[in-house]
Structures are given as C-alpha cells and as structure tokens.
Amino acid sequence: MLFVWIALWAIALILLLADPRSPVNRRLGAVALSGGAGAMAATLADVFIPYIHSEHPNAGLEDALYTVQAGASLTSYYGLPYGYLLFAMAYHPINLSRKVLRIASLVLTTPIILCVIFTPPYNEYEPISHSIVVWWAVPYFLLATALVLSKRSSHHSLPHTHWLICLAVLPPVLFTMMMSYILPSFGILRMWKYNVWFVALGVAVFLIGLFTYGFLGVRVLIDRRRLDSTLRAVTSGTAILHHAIKNDVGKMRLFTEKMKVYAERTDQRELLEDIRVLQDASRHIQDMISRVHRRTEDLVVQPREVDVKTLVRSTLKPYEPLLGKIKLHVTIPEGWQCFLDPAQVGEALNNLISNAVDAMNGEGHLFITLREGKRELTLEVRDTGPGMDKAQAAKALEPFYTTKSGKEANFGLGLPYAYYVMRKHGGSLHIRSKKGIGTRVYLIFPKRSVKAVKMQQDVSVAEGKEAHG
C-alpha cells in the first residue's frame, strides 16, 4: 500500500501543478488524494503503528498516528465517491449555471454529513457502516462513470486523450467500488488490499499517456512551455542578429557606393560588375534577416470584431487561381463574430494553406472547416498530401524545422508563427498527420478569449469549390 499512497499523491501533485485553475485537474487530483489517503491509512495500520508498538513503545505517538489513520480512512471512504462525481461533472460539463452547480455540490455532501453524524464512529474492524454507505456511494460511482463515458472530445485534434483518461481512471475506481464498498456491505472485509493491482494499472496508463499523447493537458502544457521558451530565445537572438547585420550591411553599402563611383569614373567595367554582385548580396542578406526577424519578433495583437467566414474567404481568395487540380472544400457556419487580430490570424491561416497547397503538389483535396464546441471554435485546415511521420509531426512547431527540402527562402517559421499567433489570442494549435494520408492542423479559439458570438442562429452553409488547371 505504500506504493499506492506515494503513486496517487504524486499524480495528484502533477495534476495540480500542471494547471491549478482547471476544475477537471483539481477534482481528479482530489480523487487521487482521497485514494492515497486510504492507502496511507492502511500503511499506518499495517506497518508504522505495529513497528512503533513493538520496537519503540510510545502511547502518545501511537494515539496520534491512530487519529491520523482514522481521519485518512474516513477521508478515503467518503471523499472518493464524492470527489469522483465532482470530477465527472467537471469533465463532462452539464449545462447548468455556476450557482446551480455550487448548490448541487453542497447537496451531494448531505449523505456524507448524515453518515458522520448518525452512524457508529470509526473502528479498525469496520471503519464505516458499509451497509449504509453503499446505498449512496455506489450510485455516485455509477452516475460519474456514465458521465465520463458519455463525454465526447471537445475537438477532433485529441480524441485519444479521452480514452486514455477512461482507461486510467475507470478501472481502478470501479474495482475500488466493488472491493471497498459492495463486498464489505455483505460482510466480506479487507478486500481493499487487492486494489493495488488496478491502481498500478491506472498509474501505468497515466505515465504512458503523459509521455506519449499527454494527460488532461499535462504534456500539452509541458510542450507549450518548451515552445514558448524556444520562441523567446529565437526572438531575442534574431533581434540581436538583425541589428548587427543591419549595421554591417549599411557599412557595406556605403563603401560599395564609393567604390562604384570610383569604378565608373575610371571606366573599370570588371570592377563595376564585381561591386554590383556585392551590392546584390548585401541586399539579399538584409532581406533574408529582415524576413526572419519579422516572423519571430514579439507580436503586437490589435484585436477587433471580425466575421470569421469573411476572414477565411479573403485569405483563400489569392489561392483560388493557383489550386490547379486541387479541390477546395469550405465549410464555415454563417454569423460567427470574434474579437481577434485579422492581420495576424489571416497570416497564420495563410501559412497553413500555403503549406497544404505546397504539400499536395497540384493535386488533392483541401478542406477548411469551422466547428463549434461547448467552449471553443476549432478552425481545421486539412490536406490530402503525403503527410508526416510521428517524428516529423513532433518537430513541426520548432523554429527553422522544415520538410520542404529545396524550397528557396523557406525558413521553417510558418507553423511556429501560427502557433505564436494562437497563443497571443489565448488559443492553441494542434497538428495531426499520417504518412500517406495527409495533415490536419487545428486552430482552437476559446470562445471566452475571443468573445465569440453567433449573430445568426442555426444557419450553416457548406460550400465546395473546384479549381481546374
């Protein structure tokens, strides 16, 4: 049980530190803390208290540890079903106001309060009145499980995380319901010692998910911080480089102009041609570093009210004559107004469309789709190009990484720039790609961050256009 205690509290700490503002993380952390409290009570009862009693007798210390054991045991028995139900309510939000949800959270504590007041006090043989507690705890467990299973992914970019959460949370909780609540109500006690196997399974799934796809946004948060720090370093570096090169190129231009005048006056045509080569090279260097600097400098967002469909259409318009045999499919619901920077978001979308068109090499399907979730709008750009493998997709947001070998003046800054624009708008960017199938890029705008409002309700237009060369 020592392993269960340490593992569950470590998971709770990871969830709470990763995103303390998330109600889902807080409540799942509370579930892990409750489960860990039960393991702590068992460890105290079976290991620490017997050791002190036999090796270092101390009645005061034993009484104190017994009190801690009792509190931890009751916290686990009463807190686990209650915390699990609150987690499910946060994970699969119910369309109720915050005030109603707070009242519901308080009402759900009623059976716990009644059990504490009216049932016999804690004892080591039967910590709680299982035959009474089972009548409210099991419905809490089952209702919470139904809520979790009926959850649908809020957007299409991360559907696998839902099933990771189900696999990590549901088996340990439901097995605990059977071993710690149902069987003891029939007089079969101390079955909780078998919970360790399913808890170990849940911990293993949590760790695998954490280091592969992420778990409740934990890996996403780690990757986001890594990318943010990388972008800050690139921004600082290119700013210094831009300043230094600009000064040196200025000197080159000044002296080559003097040399050019001398060459023209003395009619040295060969020298004049060499000077022109140097001037062209200096202009090229200045242009290249300026373009890099513009893509990496700190963005100043100037938001205003924008019609999303109009923004998408205006961004697509320059590409329509260039599509060749690429079939364009645009599905944008009418009437969505968002408070965002049209220049920056338009440029980010332009980068994604450009990447998709380049990837398909003149033939395929390009899909631009806007989907509405409960809390966000998701703008998807999907192509049927060659796609990327997992290693390439994982590096796609890193500055200066590119799969476009041989493309002139391609710095690998389009996707990092788009990612940075989304971060500035309080949103996020996700990439899914499969070799031989194509790539999907999702721009996810939280409705609250961009003040999204639908001006026309229940009006949706799906358009498909084809451009033939």
UniProtKB/TrEMBL annotation:
Main enzyme class: transferase
E.C. designation(s): 2.7.13.3
Reactions catalysed: ATP + protein L-histidine = ADP + protein N-phospho-L-histidine
Organism: Cohnella luojiensis
Residue intervals of the Histidine kinase domain: 240-449
Presence of keyword Transferase: yes
Protein name (Swiss-Prot/TrEMBL): histidine kinase
GO biological process assignments: phosphorelay signal transduction system
ATP-binding is among the record's keywords: yes
Gene Ontology terms, MF aspect: ATP binding; protein histidine kinase activity
Matches recorded under SMART domains: HATPase_c
This protein's UniProt keywords: ATP-binding, Kinase, Membrane, Nucleotide-binding, Transferase, Transmembrane, Transmembrane helix, Two-component regulatory system
Pfam families registered for this protein in UniProt: HATPase_c
Transmembrane segments: 28-49, 100-120, 132-150, 162-184, 196-222
